[in-house]
Design goal:
Structural class: alpha/beta
Mean pLDDT: 96
Order of helices and strands: HHEEHEEHEHHEHHE
Shape: globular
Strand content: 15-25%
Number of domains: 1
CATH class: Alpha Beta
Largest sheet: 7 strands, mixed
CATH topology: Rossmann fold
Number of helices: 8
Length: 257
């Protein structure tokens, strides 16, 4: 296996899916829940850094907030090519930029942004030590009293969901070989060691219960390729009203610097 097989995976995704949200992930509803959650912390006039912007699909959803600027970085050159095509197609100005970058070594000065957020980026780093480097860099470039939002995938909800699936003799959900899910307990202990104020936002539990458990009990998933099962949209709508239970693999940690 290539040393950079994780990066190679995302380069191939960028080529295959172009400007579609599927370059980042096929689950449109989960992406929308993620965008809503992050967007809650973005305000008019903010300078924003999107770390792991992929092809710019999510970053451009935040432009309606009338932000001052947004910069998206990604370690995949092909993703950035796609993001810059999106920028050109949308006729965006210089306050929107996309560039190749590594979360472990961001080129920006200290305290450059009001809001820094990640979208399933730390989980693409090979080790916990690399994930710490990425987290520290996000904190470094965030202004004092600014906010860092880590929207990532977590191990404990995966275990909980698989316990439920086992009760119904369903095959376990897997952590893909290009992912290294974070452990909530480890992350929280580390943040406390830095005296960082944080809150955990569980924005997808009802959606995951519907789309990763009930879906396979009350429908035949083979009838619906990819994420096309109508159950997904039903539970997406419920998620917008109710959540909780820690079944959502995708969760956010909101850090106040």
């Amino acid at each position: 296996m290539s040393k950079d097989f994780i990066k190679e995976h995302w380069e191939k995704q960028a080529i295959k899916y172009g400007d579609s949200h599927e370059a980042s992930w096929g689950d449109y509803f989960a992406i929308d829940l993620e965008i809503q959650t992050i967007g809650h912390y973005i305000s008019e006039g903010n300078d924003v850094l999107d770390v792991g912007c992929a092809n710019g699909y999510s970053a451009c959803q935040h432009l309606s907030k009338k932000i001052n600027s947004i910069i998206g970085v990604d370690f995949s050159e092909k993703m950035i090519e796609g993001a810059n095509r999106r920028k050109l197609d949308m006729g965006l100005g210089d306050n929107v930029r996309f560039e190749v970058g590594d979360i472990r070594n961001l080129r920006f000065d200290d305290c450059s942004f009001d809001i820094v957020y990640t979208t399933r980026v730390l989980i693409n780093l090979p080790t916990w030590e690399d994930q710490i480097k990425g987290l520290k860099e996000c904190l470094r470039v965030c202004r004092n009293n600014g906010i860092v939002v880590l929207s990532e995938a977590f191990w404990e909800p995966l275990v909980l969901l698989n316990s439920m699936r086992t009760l119904k003799q369903l095959p376990p959900l897997i952590e893909h070989d290009f992912n290294r899910y974070l452990k909530k307990q480890r992350l929280e202990e580390y943040l406390r060691s830095l005296n960082i104020e944080f809150v955990n936002i569980d924005f997808s539990s009802v959606y995951y219960l519907g789309s990763r458990f009930l879906r396979e009990i009350i429908t035949n998933p083979q009838d619906y390729p990819g994420y096309s099962n109508p159950i997904n949209e039903i539970f997406y709508k419920i998620e917008n009203e109710f959540s909780g239970g820690d079944f959502g693999i995708q969760q956010a940690y909101v850090l106040r610097k």
